[in-house]
Amino acid sequence: MNNRLLLYAAFSLVLFMIWQQWKVEQIPPTEITSAGQKDERIIEDLPEEAAFIAEPKSIEKTKPAQVKNIDENIVLYNEDIKITVGLLGGSIKRTELLNYFKTISENSENIKLLDFTDEYYVAQSGLLHDKKSTNKELKSLAPNHHELFSVKSKNNQSLVLEWENKGAKIKVLKKIYLDKSGYIVHVKNTVINNSNRAWIGRQYRQIRRQSNGEGRSWVAPTFTGGAYYDEAYNKISYEEISEEKPKFNVINGWVAMMEHYFVSSWVFSGNKTNLFYTKEILVDDVRNDYIIGARSEPVLIQPNEKGELSSKLYVGPKLQIELEKIAPGLELTIDYGVLTFLSKPLFWLLNKIHTIVGNWGWSIILLTLIIKLVFYKLSETSYRSMAKMKKFSPKIQSIKERFGDDRQKMNQAMMAMYREEKINPLGGCWPILIQIPVFIALYWVLLESVELRHADFIFWINDLSAKDPYFVLPLIMGASMFFQQKLNPAPPDPVQAKVMQMLPIIFTAFFAFFPSGLVLYWVVNNLLSIAQQWKITKSISST
Question: Which end of the chain, C or N, has fewer beta carbons within 10 A?
Fold first, then answer.
């Protein structure tokens, strides 16, 4: 047994990712309406969407309706984000990340994480009164995200909206504001009850997104869909929202829509219970929208008193250290999978190295070197076993030729030789098996880390999250695999030998489209392995 097992494991991982991507590609793409139809998305988003929270319904197909209120947009910004707020409900209709761009071009546009034009993706919030008014003149006793607000005051980072039901003597001030920096949008509803009756109501927060397919990364089908936290991290796909429409109570926690590098999440403050819910909206025959949200417990505001209902919205990159500070479990949207317990400390170490060297490419190289040093003794055991197998491969081949098809006698002779020469045929297997989870965990760290997105390295590598434009790293990786195979004993089976010879070519073709940061890791790991294996093989062969 030798490092063929590691190659097979890596090969299987690549095939698995390609198979998952093939499944994704079978999902028919969602058609985007033309520019002349964009405004209808607001019209079709009827108030029943919010009302269902108290009385959940099955999937409904929205019908076009006339909206009397005319929406207007207000822009707020800080050092990191610019948001567009609609006067209709105070919905967050667009967020531009000022330090993240679509491409590395100097003229590239900022990333628009939320947007109400091309791909409908907005954050909505509002209030629900526990009892609907029977007086038509009084209308709503609480403003949902379809009620028109007016501007009370604003500056670059803060906006106060006002809604009032004069007949019911209920006023709501909705303050939306940003910190000096960062990606958090604060939303605070102040309900002023000037009536002679108690006001009982709840707040809801939801994210509505037009489906754009799930996991459209060629390298790996990174998850695009919903997520929530209820003392445990849970993902919920669009398909699950469509089929199950889950609804249950959560304490604290958050709800989110996420994609490869970015996430939008409503975070619940305080030790309070919220009703988690989802919904599917069939807009037309070719488009589905999906909603994930939460509704608070009722708040009682006595006559001539006021009360506050607050939330915060994170809309930005998946920065692990920042997400950990905002809410428990929010950093888990950086989806390392089952190996999170290994990936998180590996990222921590990678980030610490980066604070010293200031370059993510060199950080990857140094982290790979540290891992190789940690596993040096295990690798040494494996390489010594392989070196001995290679040294005695002529003798092993002679035994195979001598006994021909008599496998029982051949195995007996082989075991006798292993005992005589003190060779452990499994010596090269177990050390490699132990290292595989670490290698895969680091793979997901490099794949999921937004810090590597558009990160410059050296020379022609100006984006560690993109493929090598000249395919130099994949070619070096393939060559290193080829030379490493030459240090290993040749497989006795001719068919297996041919497969092994093809692996460097196959892997080179696959890695040609992998992010260069991942390929850099494989190249450095292979070169360090070759150096260690060559040294050990030379010492064994000289004895």
Answer: C
- The sign of the torsion formed by the CA atoms of 322, 328, 334, 340 equals positive
CB distance 201 to 128 below 8 Å: yes
Lookup: tokens for 48: 């029943």
Q: What does residue 137 show for φ and ψ, rounded to 5 degrees? A: -70, -30
C-beta contacts of 536-539 below 8 A and 24+ residues apart? 536/380, 536/383, 536/384, 536/387, 537/383, 537/386, 537/387, 537/390, 537/487, 539/387
Q: Please, what is the end-to-end C-alpha distance for the chain in angstroms?
A: 22
Please enumerate in sequence order all residues whose Cβ is within 8 A of that of 154, keeping only pairs 6 or more positions apart, or say none. 74, 76, 160
**Cα–Cα distance for residue pair 6/378, rounded to 1 Å:** 14
Instruction: Give 325: exposed, middle or buried? Use CB within 10 Å, 0-12, 13-18, 19+.
Output: exposed
Q: Which residue has the tokens 């009982």?
A: 200
Per residue in 88-124, is it b (16+ CB within 10 Å) or e — as a string?
Answer: bbbbbbbbbbeebbeeeeeeeeebbbbbbeeebbbbb
Q: For the CA atoms of the chain, what is the radius of gyration?
A: 30
The gap from C-alpha 159 to its chain's centroid, in whole angstroms, comes to: 31
E strands within 252-337? Answer: 254-258, 262-267, 273-282, 288-296, 299-301, 305-317
Domain coordinates of the chain in residue numbers?
Answer: 4-17+344-541, 43-335
Alpha carbon distances (Å) from 424 to 2, 386, 421: 11, 9, 9
Q: Is 0.70 topped by the overall pTM?
A: yes
DSSP conformation class of 237: -
327: exposed, middle or buried (Cβ count in 10 Å: 0-12, 13-18, 19+): buried
Dihedral angle sign, alpha carbons of residues 63, 65, 69, 75:
positive
Tens-digit pLDDT profile for residues 357-386:
999 999 999 999 999 888 887 777 766 766
CATH code for the part of the protein at 43-335: 2.70.98.90
Percent of all residues in the chain with a pLDDT value above 70, rounded to a whole number = 76
CA distances from 181 to 78, 157, 449 (A): 6, 10, 21
- φ/ψ of residue 79, rounded to 5: -70, -20
